[in-house]
């Protein structure tokens, strides 16, 4: 859908470096938000309406400066889920290569014990 931030099939949610089509800034400190992790999850139907439900692609972004954490969860189709599972090699993707490009993020990862 035109104008929708997380349009399915758009490069920003299908690439290995999923980024929003606009620059996301932290509302607390104005820092740049970086992708932290992506996961496609099943949204179950309700007991009153079991035919409802489907999939959502959770995408979390983190501020490099203040460490605030921002999740988004646009709905996606079963076809998108299958496509991303092939690209990511599973239903979860952690874009570690994005973090390693930034010295401060790399330092924080080392503090957390990542290498
Ligand atoms: Zn911030």
Strand tally: 5
Portion in strands:
25-35%
Assembly state here? single chain
Q: Which residues sit in consecutive blocks of at least 5 with pLDDT less than 50? A: none
List SSEs in N-to-C order: HEEEEHEHH
Average pLDDT figure: 81
Structural class: alpha+beta
**Associated small molecules:** zinc ion
Radius of gyration over all CA atoms, rounded: 16 Å
> How many helical elements?
4
Secondary-structure blueprint:
Elements (H helix, E strand, L loop, with lengths): L10 H4 L18 E11 L10 E10 L5 E4 L2 E2 L1 H11 L3 E2 L2 H5 L2 H10 L3
Antiparallel strand pairs: 1-2, 1-5, 2-3, 2-4
The structure holds zinc ion.
């Amino acid at each position: 859908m035109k104008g929708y931030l997380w349009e399915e099939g758009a490069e920003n949610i299908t690439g290995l470096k999923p980024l929003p089509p606009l620059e996301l800034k932290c509302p607390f400190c104005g820092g740049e938000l970086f992708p932290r992790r992506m996961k496609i999850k099943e949204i179950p139907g309700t007991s009153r309406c079991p035919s409802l439900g489907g999939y959502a692609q959770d995408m979390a972004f983190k501020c490099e400066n203040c460490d605030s954490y921002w999740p988004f969860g646009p709905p996606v189709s079963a076809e998108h889920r299958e496509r991303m599972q092939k690209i990511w090699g599973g239903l979860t993707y952690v874009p570690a290569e994005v973090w390693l490009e930034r010295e401060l993020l790399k330092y924080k990862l080392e503090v957390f014990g990542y290498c």
